């Protein structure tokens, strides 16, 4: 693969991985927890296509963030900082707003770490 296209290819691959991981975790595996929690708050769980578009922009931003960190830090530091800023801080905010069903965290924490780990691994493949 040409050197100029390599970062674009790995960036797209990382973005797709994060989008698919998020969709699998939140829309398939944990959907019932989200829907039930939102219903208990008198709300409807936001699943419109526009919400999916916003989450794909979030995934693109996270991909760019991982890429930027990978330029300055080791693989494991990139994974740790990316997970902390991408997930831990988001869950703190959602928990503070009371829209986070805490019952999902036992599955969401390891799956989100796997998401960041593999996303970072794909990005770091650029340099091999």
Tell me what you see in this structure.
- With 128 residues, the protein is an all-alpha fold.
- The protein has one domain (6-127).
- It is 78% helix and 0% strand.
- It has helices at 6-29, 31-40, 49-72, 75-96, 105-124.
- The radius of gyration is 16 Å and the shape is elongated.
- 18% of the residues are buried.
| Distance between the first and last residues' Cα | 12 Å
**Shape descriptor:** elongated
Mean pLDDT: 94
Task: Please tally the helical runs, counting DSSP H or I stretches of 4 or more residues.
Answer: 5
Percent of residues in helices: over 70%
Strand portion: under 5%
* Poorly predicted regions: none
Structure classification: mainly alpha
Q: How many extended strands?
A: 0
**Number of individual domains:** 1
Secondary-structure element sequence? HHHHH
Main pleated-sheet profile? none
Using only C-alpha atoms, the radius of gyration works out to 16 Å
List the topology elements:
Layout: H1 6-29, H2 31-40, H3 49-72, H4 75-96, H5 105-124
Helix pairs in contact: 1-3, 1-5, 3-4, 3-5, 4-5
């Amino acid at each position: 693969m040409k050197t100029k296209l390599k970062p674009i290819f790995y960036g797209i691959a990382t973005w797709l991985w994060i989008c698919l991981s998020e969709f699998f975790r939140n829309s398939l595996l944990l959907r019932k927890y989200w829907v039930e929690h939102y219903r208990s708050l008198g709300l409807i769980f936001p699943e419109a296509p526009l919400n999916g578009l916003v989450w794909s922009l979030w995934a693109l931003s996270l991909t760019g963030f991982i890429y930027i960190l990978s330029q300055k830090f080791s693989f494991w530091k990139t994974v740790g900082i990316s997970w902390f800023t991408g997930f831990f801080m988001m869950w703190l905010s959602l928990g503070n707003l009371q829209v986070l069903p805490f019952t999902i965290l036992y599955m969401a924490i390891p799956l989100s770490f796997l998401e960041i780990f593999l996303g970072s691994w794909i990005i770091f493949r650029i340099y091999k």
